[in-house]
Amino acid sequence: MTLRLEDALPEKRATRRAFDRARGFDGASFIHDEARARMLERLELLRAEPKLVLDLGCATGRGANVLAARYPAARILAVDSSAAMLRAAAAGAASSVVIVGGDAERLPLKSHCVDLVFANLVLPWCRPDAVFAETARVLAEGGAVSFATLGPDSLKEVREAFAAVDDRIHVHAAFDMHDLGDLAMAAGLAEPVLDVDRLEVTYADVASLARDLRAMGGVNVALARRRALTGRTRWAGFAQRLGSEGGKRLSVTVELVLGQAFGRGPTQRRRTAEGGAEVRIPVDRIGRPPEST
C-alpha cells in the first residue's frame, strides 16, 4: 500500500467526534497526566510570569486549572475543538480560566498576544506544522511554548500486530524529535529544545487496552483508515498477534516527545518569512515502518 502523508494524518471531523464520544477520559488519561507533570517541571526553568496563558487542547480542563494555580496573576485560555471536552472543562474551571472553542490549527486569537502556550498531547491530532505556525503567530516576542507529543515508536506493537492482518492504517502518523524541531523552526519558532522519554504501559488483555484508548478518544481517525468494521476474523488475528501468551500481560510502548521553543515576535517572524524557510518530511520518515501502519 502506497502512503501519502495526508493518508496517515487524523481527519478533523472524525477527531472531534471521537473526543465528543469519549467517556471516562480523566480515568484513562494517565499518559496525559504524566506528560503534563513533565512539562510543568520544565516550565520551572523558564521563571516566567505570563499574563495570558493558552492551554491548547485543554480536554477536561485539568491542565488549565493547574496552570491557574501556578500563575495566579494570569488569565488562562482553555481551548479545544470538542464540545464535550469544553463542557467538562467549563464545569470545573477555576475563576481565572476562560473556556474557548477553537481549532489548534486556526486559533481565534489575535497575533502576538499570548505569553505562554501549553500544548499537552494535542499535536498527535493535528498537522504539527500548522499548529507550530499558529503558535508562532499568537506568541508574543519572548513568549514560550511547551509541548508534549507522541513519537513514531508509540503503539508500535499495535501497528505491527495489525500489519499482520491487513495493509490499512491503524495508527496515525507520528514525527520524530528531529523533524519536529525542524518544523518548529520553519514555522517561525526560535530555539526549540526537544527530548524523548519512552514509557512501557502494561495491560491484562487486549480488551483493556482498547477500552482505555476509546476512553481517551484515541481511536483510529486516520484519513485512509478502513471505514468498515474491522470484523471478527481480522480482530481475532490482531488480538492473537498482540495478546499475551502463557498468562503474561501485554505491553505497549509510548514514546513521549517533550519540547520547548520561543516566540520571535512580528519583526523576527517577518525576517524568517522573507528567508523562505520550508521543511518537507518524506512519508517514509513517519511511523516506522510505513508499510506496517
3D structure, described in words:
The chain is of the alpha/beta class and 293 residues long. The protein is built from 12 helices and 7 strands.
Report a brief summary of the structure:
With 293 residues, this protein is of the alpha/beta class. It has helices spanning 5-8, 12-21, 25-28, 30-43, 62-70, 83-91, 128-138, 156-163, 177-186, 206-215, 232-242, 265-275, and strands at 52-56, 75-80, 97-101, 114-120, 139-150, 190-203, 250-262.
What spatial form do the alpha-carbon principal axes imply? globular
Query: Which parts are unreliable, with pLDDT below 50 for 5 consecutive residues or more?
Result: 269-286, 288-293
CATH class term = Alpha Beta
Q: Which strand order do you get reading across the main beta sheet?
A: 3-2-1-4-5-7-6
**Helical stretch count?**
12
Distance from N terminus to C terminus (CA atoms, Å) equals 10 Å
The structure class reads alpha/beta
How many discrete structural domains? 1
* Mean of pLDDT: 88
- The CATH architecture can be given as 3-Layer(aba) Sandwich
The radius of gyration over CA amounts to 19 Å
- SSE pattern, N- to C-terminal: HHHHEHEHEEHEHHEHHEH
Largest sheet: 7 strands, mixed
Please identify which CATH superfamily we are dealing with.
Answer: Vaccinia Virus protein VP39
CATH topology: Rossmann fold
